[in-house]
Amino acid sequence: MKKNWLIFVLVLFVVSCQSSKDLKHITVASYNVENLFDTEDDPHINDNEFLPGSDKKWTTERYERKLNDIARVLHEISPDDLPEIIGLAEIENQKVLEDLVKTEALAPGNYKIAHQDSPDKRGIDVALLYRPDAFKLISFEAIPVDPGFATRDILHVYGQFKKEEFHFFVNHWPSRIGGLEKSEPNRVVAAETLKKKVDSILAENPDANIVVMGDMNDEPQNKSLQEVLGAGSPDSNSELVNLMMPLALEKKGTYNYRGTWNMLDNLVISSGLLDAKGYKVTPPTGFIFSEPWMEYTNKDGEISPNRTYGGPNYYGGVSDHFPVYFEMEK
């Protein structure tokens, strides 16, 4: 009987070791995947341009290629160990997320999904993928943003790495359509909405671990991020710091508009994640991920993200954005 009990304990120990993950190193990635739509008509949203019979001729073959290309990008960000957390922008629904995590490149991560449909008229949402062997989900909620029209919610995901609590906010703020200055108030509303929630968390726990990610359609130096949200550079004394600020100041970016790089994809963290307590972002910066197969080079040798579409023209690229990421160690 005693021998059987020892064997049982040993089996439990082995299973525990195999199912739990060494969380000394964590990778957090954020990616605007440029209109990841399925090929099925949803009568509740305006998804007509991404159907097989549309001008874009969005077929199953093109959809599956895009899924596999996105998965390849995310895998190559951390080839030795898939990212523990992935924030996504411009996804249509739960189905495309389920299809994405089943791809050959991502399936080993056994990703789970935090997602809620937003009021955006085109039906595009944000979502968070997490590895359940690393991150324990406690709750998530969609925070409405109201600049006077229907736009994407902010997704707030709350959970733990080894009992250390984290708040993740996935964003896709209103676009720059109409011009930077004219559209800026819409993004200021998004920043104010986020700031209110972040402040409430920090008021309750000044040491809370907060990560803000996504396509803000603004750069780190713009009003919405630097003034309203209050995200300074990593070497500042700000309560929130933008890990992409140093690269933005070097004129690097994740999105190329008519030959000019814009740092529209941001990674903002609470300053406590730069100290030596618990998890620490190291090095204290974000990174832009790109490989030649993800890029387009024009006749002048200028590089930009190789997009999937330009208007109705199919280019076969992955996305019109490059992903960003950072790493933490404990």
TrEMBL record:
User: SUPFAM superfamilies attached here?
Assistant: DNase I-like
Where does this protein come from, organism-wise?
Mangrovibacterium diazotrophicum
Alphabetized UniProt keyword annotations:
Endonuclease, Exonuclease, Hydrolase, Nuclease
Which PROSITE patterns does the record cross-reference, listed alphabetically?
PROKAR_LIPOPROTEIN
- Record's keyword annotation contains Plastid: no
Its Gene Ontology molecular function terms? Answer: endonuclease activity; exonuclease activity
Query: The Endonuclease/exonuclease/phosphatase domain covers which part of the protein?
Result: 27-330
What's the protein called, per UniProt? Answer: Endonuclease/Exonuclease/phosphatase family protein
